[in-house]
Amino acid sequence: MEKDEDKHEPIKELKLYKIASELLQTERAYVTRLHLLDQVFCAKLTEEAGKGTFPVEVVKGIFSNVGSIYTFHSQFLLPDLETRMSQWDSTPRIGDILAQLAPFLRMYAEYVKNFDSAMDLLKQWMERSAQLNAIIQDIQSQEVCGNLTLQHHMLEPVQRVPRYEMLLKDYLKKLPEDDPDRSQAEKSLNIISMAATHSNTAIRKMENLKKLMEIYEMLGGEEDIVNPSNELIKEGQILKLAARNTSSMERYLFLFNNMLLYCVPKFSLVGQRFTVRTRVGVEGMKVLETSNDDYPHTFQVSGKERTLELQASSEQDKEDWIKVSVLLTSKESNLVIAPRWIRDNEVTMCMKCKEPFNPLTRRRHHCRACGYVVCYKCSDYKASLRYDGNKLNKVCKDCYFILTGRVDAEEPVSGKKRGILEIEAAQVSGNSFLCGFLQYSTDRTKPCQRVWCVIPQHDALVLYLYGAPQDVKAQCTIPLLGYQVEDVQRSVDHPPSSFRLRQSKSVHYFTADTEEVKLRWLRVICKAVIGEMPECQTPDVGDVATSETLTTTKNTQITP
């Protein structure tokens, strides 16, 4: 038996070497494609846009953060793989390299999220601008493009992360259980799988918006359909039982996470195909199975707007409609302690719908159940609260759904995950390398904006920018890897406490309250831009006071 095992060892080692070699070879080819995208296509189009031929924002919209992706792969991942393969005889492993660098693959979520709109923007401007089209056609005709279009090359980053996942799974299959690289390889696979999930989540979100747009057109421009908070749960043909006779009429249902659309077909092959007859809100909607001797597979949908007697095409179809509808209306909990109120100046947007506040049309209101600051649309509800002697109190819609036994209309049945920006400031600030206020701008000629900046410990190479310390969604993120950190020349608009981050065509200007605060930020950022783990910095006194409240933000308990 020992001889057989010894005989198989060289074969396993050879297979591991082949997998590692394939990773290196495909990485070389991939970096060549990224160079073509960033340093050829993007660079030449940006140069032409600088002449005023077409807007530079068009070029940025097409290529998104491909520059950051190119920097990471060309300056970090590929060189590390090259070095490791040259030392394979003494260090035959790749798990440690991937475990260290895999977290940076999260930057792909931004690229993938932007991909569909980039394709649309590219098509639109190739038709609109002869100069833009001529530059692209000229590059595509060159040998370096391999007779492939720009669109084809732009698809490569979308497909790359799943490729890493596949190769690493194959590597682990061939890796002995007791191999010292197994723990690192498994750790890197977990991180890469999460990165693939980020990309897949972005893809699903874009697919959902595309589906909403299709429904919008089918309904003849029905308002409020194309909204990122809407998610289609189920759709299909149905029969409506008439109340006054025994006839049935063909109808069509669209069930969203917050409403049911009851539609009448228009029998048109193009354009509008349905007319919305009734909207039934999920709030308060009930779905019951009914019995009818003349018509099988029937059920009833009742809401405050209308009651519908419906017939499904089969027993299975009826059960599916009842199941998904009940899941949308079946959560029951109750509030047991008073919440801490979030201060008005700690948020810039509604903590539920994420719409920005303004003093005229979207003012701030407090939910008495969770303490969140919400807009009037999200707080126009009342529910009895146990901590207040079961008196009726003004609550947000989410708490209303919970306290009355209904599901949050924003929570889809399919368990949709948060977007990459939808991480609460309080959640990351309490466990960060550094957080605090900075003045921020991407254009020196325009006024700076005061933003709450965070470099979280779970995502050490990304800078999150929020409007305020309690905002539930970041305004943007900056992947720091590969950026150059520079001092800004002193002027009236830029005092000594200013600095900037520059990478290719992307420039971000920051100003701290003092030079001491600036130095604390630079100590962290200068580590992050070269891929090293920063050390935790002590925030200034004002930021300490703010940060200490962050960990107590979610002290409200809602239990069954």
Can you walk through the features of this model?
This protein has helices at residues 2-49, 56-63, 66-86, 95-101, 108-128, 130-140, 150-154, 156-174, 182-218, 315-327, 397-403, 425-429, 515-528, 541-550, and strands spanning 232-241, 248-256, 259-265, 274-281, 286-289, 298-302, 307-311, 334-335, 365-366, 373-374, 381-385, 391-395, 432-441, 449-456, 462-466, 476-479, 484-487, 498-503, 506-511, 558-559. With 560 residues, it is α+β, with helices and mostly antiparallel strands. The chain folds into four domains: 8-219, Dbl homology (DH) domain (Dbl Homology Domain, Chain A, Up-down Bundle), CATH 1.20.900; 232-329, Pleckstrin-homology domain (PH domain)/Phosphotyrosine-binding domain (PTB) (PH-domain like, Roll), CATH 2.30.29; 335-408, 2-Layer Sandwich (Herpes Virus-1), CATH 3.30.40; 425-530, Pleckstrin-homology domain (PH domain)/Phosphotyrosine-binding domain (PTB) (PH-domain like, Roll). The strands form five sheets. The protein has a seven-stranded antiparallel β-sheet. Strands 16-15-14-13-19-18-17 form a seven-stranded antiparallel β-sheet.
